[in-house]
Every structure is written in C-alpha cells, then in structure tokens.
Specification:
- The complex is a heterodimer of chains A (about 290) and B (about 300).
- With about 290 residues, chain A is an all-alpha fold.
- Chain A has a single domain, classed as MetI-like (MetI-like fold), CATH 1.10.3720.
- Chain A is built from 11 helices and 2 strands, in the order H-H-E-E-H-H-H-H-H-H-H-H-H.
- Chain A has a two-stranded antiparallel sheet with strand order 1-2.
- In chain A, a hairpin with a 6-residue loop joins strand 1 and strand 2.
- The longest helix of chain A is centred in the first third of the chain and has 35 residues.
- The chains are: A mainly alpha (about 290), B alpha/beta (about 300).
- The interface between A and B is medium-sized, with 38 and 28 residues.
C-alpha cells in the first residue's frame, strides 16, 4: 500500500511481460517432458531398434507390432516431394512478384498468395480426394491415385504462401545499391537477378524454404485424406504411404489409455518433435552462417 | 488510494467473469446431471458406442431426469461390468460366451438378452468390375494380400487395391475378426500392409466409385448406386447371398451379426424405459442413421 501506484503498476506490467516472454519456452519444455514421459513407456513392449526400424505397424494386434520405419519414410518422402515442387516454384514466384511484375499485377498476385494461405487444409484435402486423386490415377495409369505424390502436391500448395512471402521480403531487403551497381556495370536485368540479387537474398530464401519444410512435415489433415495411409515401406513417390502425423491423428482417439498402442503414438510424437526440431535448427544454423559472411 | 481504483476494478471484473464461467459450467453439468436422481450406466462394445450415445442423447430429451452415461471398452468389458454390478446395461456385439454364462449362474444372476440392432458389412467394388460374388475365403485371401489381381476371380487383368477402415473403427475390427480370422477374436491374420487405411466410410465410397481396381467395405447403411455391392458366399460353400436389410435380419448374409443389450434380470425402471426407447420406431431410426440395420 505504501508503494506509489505507478511503481506498482510498472512492477505488475513488467512481470506480466516477463511471463509472456518465457511462456513459449515453458510450454515447449512442458510439452516435451509430457511427450517423453508418455512416450518412453513404449520401451516396455518394444526396443528402440525394433520401434524405429520395424517394418510392420499393427498396433492393436496382440502382441502388437510397433515398427514405425514405414511411417518415418512415408513422412520424409511426402515432404521431399512437396519441397521439390514448392521451393523452385515459390522462389520463382517471389522473384516475379518482387522484381519483374508490373505494379498493378504485383498487388493482385500478393493478395492471391494471401488467399491461398487462408484455405483450410481440410478443404484442400477434399479437393484432392475428389479431383486430384482420380486425375493422377488416370493420367499416370496408377493402381490408385492415393499416393505420396498426391500428398506432395497438396502440401506444396500449403507451403507456397510461406515460401513466396518470406522469399519476397528477403528479395526486397537486398540493398538497392547492389542492383544499381550491377546494372551500371552493364549486366542485364536477368544477370542482375540471377547473379547479384539472389546472393543478397539467399539467407532469407533458405529460411523461407526451411519454414516451408516445417509447415509441410507437420501437416496432417490433407495428407491423411490423399496419401492412402498404407503402412508399407515406399519405393517410389507413386505408391501409397502413411505419415507419422496421419497415424497419430487417425489412431489417438481410440487408443486405450496405458496400452502399448497409446505409448507408441506418443513415441511417434517424440520422433516428429525431434525431426521438426532438427529442421528448425538447420534453418537457424544456415541463416547465421549466411549472416556472418 | 484513488488511483488504485482501476486496478481493483479490473480485478473485480476478472473475478466476476471467472465466477460467471464457473457457475455457468456447473449449471451446464447440473442440468444433464442426476438432478432428479436416476443415472444409467451403459458400458461395452466399441462398435456400439456411437449408437449408444446417439440413443442416450435422444433419450435425454424425452427424460431429462435420467442421466445416461455411455462408455466403450469392448463387449467383454461390458459383460464383466454387468456381472459385477458396475453398469446397468451391457452393450455387446456378440452372444454370451460359455464362461460368462457359468459365471452368471454361479453368481445367481439371470442375464436378460435383447437384440437391439443388427450389423451388416457390405463389400463394394467399382461398378465396371465384372466380379459380382466372392466367398468368405476368397475375401480373406484378398484382404490378407495373398491374391494381387482381379483376373484370379474372373475379373479383368488389373491389380487389386485394398481399402480398409482405420484401426480405430469397429468395422475394421469386425471385418478382421469375422472374415480374416474366421470368427476368432485372436489370431495371426492381419490386413495386408499394403491395404489403404481410409479415415472414413465416405473416403472408401469415394475411392471405390472412381477406381476400377478398388475393393472396400463399410456398413450396410452406406450403400449407394455409385458402387457395386458384392454378394458373399458363406464359408460352408452355400450359394452367395446379396446383402440387404432382409438377408441380414434372416441371418443369411455371412458378414453380419446381431447387437445385444444385456441387463440383470427383467429390465425395470429407467433400464426398461431406455430399452423400450431403443426398440421404438424413433430408436430404430437412430439405428439406421448410425449405419446399422434396424431389427424391424
């Protein structure tokens, strides 16, 4: 009560801001501890080797077969496919929007990209299952259109807005003098873009691609609807796959609490967490290296 | 003191809001809760959980004074619970086993059995597929991945694409136990790893309607003209039977089963009301809406 009121208010506000600041750290730590606590119990029913390297996923049989190698490979394959489509397309689109497009078209394109990012993944998945899947099956003459490739295309759509927006910011942030210098030396517009601007913007572009990968790897709904979810080790992009995320989403609702299946799903969560973390870490390292140079 | 007021006002508003939410929550629970006294515990078959919950919701509108709680766990769990008195109705997707009948006898409990609905699973293919009937054993070979091409069964020379429900689905479990494991709940048989796990009956229907290679299964209630429904030959070698509400009711269609309610003795009080509701036209309409077959 003796404290002057403004000092008290200051104190409260300061602490609140501090709390908000550390909240995200706290949440990540708590989530990881929770995942770890639930997930390690899977080792009661299987070993790390046969969990990560096992070829069969029959979680509700007795005894349950809990091998997630097909799921890990499925997730990686779908992600790799999506990145091969989205990264070149996204970077090219970013260059077009930032450097080539006339001003009017630029505004239109930018709002279109924003609309694309606003489409819910369920809606994309729905379009995928009704249009893309039958189309791919007929055009490529596959046994079924529910393949890793369908998932990759869906995910590429979802990663594009992230990649385009962040790459475009990076391109715009390249100092004007670089461009002016290159043009003054007689370089063409294309040479300027391809030899000068791209170098200046590279760290940002890599960050954009990495964030795109992160977005794709964790995506669940659209992937679950179009990839077929068969837990087999894939040999090509044109086979059905089951991803880590789809497995958790499809099975968590009914897994009996405390069963090997339940713990295995948490362990799948740990694997997802670790891989996502590795992707983000790589992005950070690449970005920092780019900055030091 | 004066300048404290806004802070205090803020706190007061916060607590007032919190209190409102707290009591609003209590009110919500109370209205569904045992205000009038009677509470009904229903436990058992995972296949029937959704059906039981749909019944409970509709029943609650007619009898708000009776609080119905429906939980799963499996038919065996439900029957065990009715035997040791921890539930009022056991939902079961199978008849009583020898063991359970003896246990009831030795405990002096007369279990009362009522068939409340029927469950029939249809096998569907693309309308252009020339195959129109398969036996139970052929279905077993197909879904275990032992036969890879339609030509084996007189179809075109195309690969067979298997469509299954996810493991969280009661339909998945019923098909596995009934077709793959020939009626046993435990066994080494599994769906082929290459079987596509579809998140819903809708997804299976959609894929079979568009893919000439596909074969899938779902509840009888999901039949539409966009897929071809196969007749199924029983395991003993009899003629193939087309699935329909009639053939399921007559127990002629092989991939079907009755769904039971078990109660302790003659049902009475709230249990009797709930049972009567489940068997009423309104209750049986709910059976149909949840993809099962009504008994009448």
């Amino acid at each position: 009560m003796k404290l002057p009121s403004h000092r008290f208010r200051e104190f409260v506000i300061e602490k609140l801001i501090f709390l908000s600041g550390i909240a995200s750290v706290l949440f990540v730590a708590l989530i990881f501890i929770f995942l770890l606590r639930e997930g390690v119990s899977v080792l009661k029913s299987t070993s790390i080797g046969s969990f990560l390297g096992g070829h069969f996923w029959y979680p509700i049989s007795s005894p349950a077969k809990l091998g997630i190698l097909p799921l890990i490979l499925g997730s990686l394959l779908v992600t790799a496919g999506a990145i091969m489509i989205a990264v070149p397309l996204g970077i090219a689109a970013a260059f077009y929007i930032a450097e080539v497009a006339p001003k009017r078209l630029r505004t239109i394109l930018k709002s279109c990209v924003e609309v694309l990012s606003a489409i819910p993944s369920v809606v994309l998945g729905f379009l995928g299952i009704t249009i893309l899947v039958p189309f791919l099956k007929n055009v490529l003459n596959l046994p079924t259109g529910l393949t890793a490739f369908s998932g990759s295309i869906m995910l590429a759509f979802m990663a594009l807005p992230t990649i385009i927006t962040i790459s475009e910011d990076a391109i715009n942030a390249v100092p004007r003098e670089y461009k002016d210098g290159a043009l003054a030396l007689g370089a063409t517009h294309w040479q300027t873009l391809f030899r000068v601007v791209i170098h200046g913007a590279l760290p940002g572009i890599i960050a954009a691609a990495m964030l795109g990968i992160g977005r794709v790897f964790g995506e669940t709904m659209a992937v679950m609807m179009v990839t077929g979810n068969a837990a087999v080790i894939p040999h090509s992009l044109f086979e059905p796959v089951r991803t880590l995320t789809a497995t958790i989403a499809a099975e968590m609702g009914e897994a009996a609490k405390g069963s090997p299946h339940y713990f295995a799903l948490f362990a799948v969560g740990i694997v997802l967490f670790v891989i996502s973390f590795a992707i983000n870490l790589t992005a950070d390292l690449l970005l920092n290296r780019g900055k030091k140079r | 003191m004066e300048s404290w007021a806004p802070v205090r006002k803020g706190f007061a508003a916060f607590f007032a809001l919190a209190a409102v939410f707290f009591f609003a929550n209590c009110g919500g629970r109370g209205s569904a809760g045992p205000r009038g006294g009677a509470a009904l515990q229903i436990k058992g078959s995972d296949t029937m959980v959704n059906l039981g919950q749909a019944w409970a919701e509709a029943f609650n509108k007619l009898h708000p004074e009776i609080n119905v709680a429906v939980t799963g766990g499996g038919s065996g769990t439900g029957i065990a619970a009715i035997l040791n008195g921890t539930c009022d109705i056991a939902e079961s997707s199978r008849a009583l086993e020898e063991k359970e009948i003896e246990k009831a006898k030795s405990a002096g409990i007369a279990l009362h059995e009522t068939i409340v609905a029927l469950d029939g699973i249809v096998v569907v293919v693309h309308p252009s597929n020339p195959v129109s009937a398969l036996t139970m054993d052929q279905l077993r070979e197909i879904f275990m991945g032992n036969v890879a091409r339609w030509s084996v069964f007189g179809g075109e020379d195309r690969p067979i694409v298997l469509l299954s429900r996810e493991v969280n689905s009661g339909t998945h479990i019923f098909f596995k136990e009934h077709v793959l494991r020939r009626g046993k709940s435990k066994g080494p048989e599994e769906f082929a790893p290459a079987a596509l796990m579809m998140p819903s009956s809708y997804a299976i229907a959609e894929e079979t309607a568009r893919n000439e290679n596909a074969v899938g299964y779902y509840g009888l209630g999901y039949i539409s003209p966009r897929q071809k429904v196969l007749a199924v030959g029983p395991r003993d070698g009899g003629p193939a039977v087309a699935p329909s509400i009639e053939s399921v009711r007559a127990n002629a269609y092989p991939i079907s089963r009755p769904l039971y309610f078990f109660t302790r003795g003659e049902p009475s009080g709230a249990v009797k009301d709930f049972l009567a509701f489940a068997l009423s036209p309104e209750g049986q309409a709910i059976v149909k809406a949840t993809d099962f077959v009504p008994i009448k």
